[in-house]
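Notes, p. 3: input format for complexes.
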Amino acid sequence: MGRRILMILAMLIVALGGAFWWFMLSGKAPKEAPGVFDIAEWRSLVVDDAGAGPDAVRWLEVGHDLAPSWAVQAGRFSDAVPMSYNAIQLSWPDRSIIVGGAVDAETAEQMRQTPKAGFDAATYETLLAAMLDAEQVLITHEHLDHVMAVARHPEPARLAPNLVLNAAQLEALPVFAESGVLAPEIAAVAPVDFSAPTRIAPGVVVAPAPGHTAGSQVVFIQRADGEEYLLIGDIVWNANNIDDLKPRPRLTQIVVFDPNEDRAAIERQIRALHDLKVAEPDLSIVPAHDRAFLQQMVADGLLAAGWE
Ligand SMILES: [Zn+2]
Ligand SMILES: [Zn+2]
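Output follows (308 residues plus zinc ion):
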């Protein structure tokens, strides 16, 4: 009798340990991921743009919060991870591009994880206005914390001509509209084909990166002075994932994402980003939510904080 109970207990412990490993710890980028991201190709697309890229890359932080480290990276158990909700503006003397729709007040409240969360209503208003002045408005991907200033913009007729969205992004957009129905002007926007790396402005290339979502893409930027950036959206939430070659844990993927991420694609992208980071130490690889990384970029003069 006692032996049987011990056996059952031992099996239970093994099963629980296995489940903990599977949901919380497992996952690693493959040894190599050739051809996933080709910076030489991106550079070739902007080779004639030397000196004509944006003068400034600006970070407009609309909201912030903290996330548990174990939810951000499989097997990471450290202090809570600062998260930023924001948009990026590329600015030239005579034009601008905005990447990201951030969160509105309602979404920020819904997503709140900790009492330290903050939302800056004035900055959100600034983002809404800046989108109307922008030559192009893009998003890295179709998730609620990256689309609200697009899907819920109060002036859809003025915004619509500026939108540059791919088909998967447009298809997902209605879910994020206030009533589940997009303004007709935004619903009528024609998709742009970003199935191959595409130059969209001097020094700026959009390249497909499906995995986190079907419509995920990265934005490669060569500033006028030659400084280079790669906006990677949510391939990872934190630069540490790239250094450690680790994706989000399965638990996060199952609980947070619907539809779920393509985990294998994410792991290949993490390997590609890791190798890119090693090969190109001067390239800033920017995860959309990594608040500490973004703040460090401001300190280093790589990002301008706020709008001009
Ligand atoms: Zn996302
Ligand atoms: Zn996100």
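Residues 141, 143, 212, 234 surround zinc ion (ligand 1) (CB under 6 Å).
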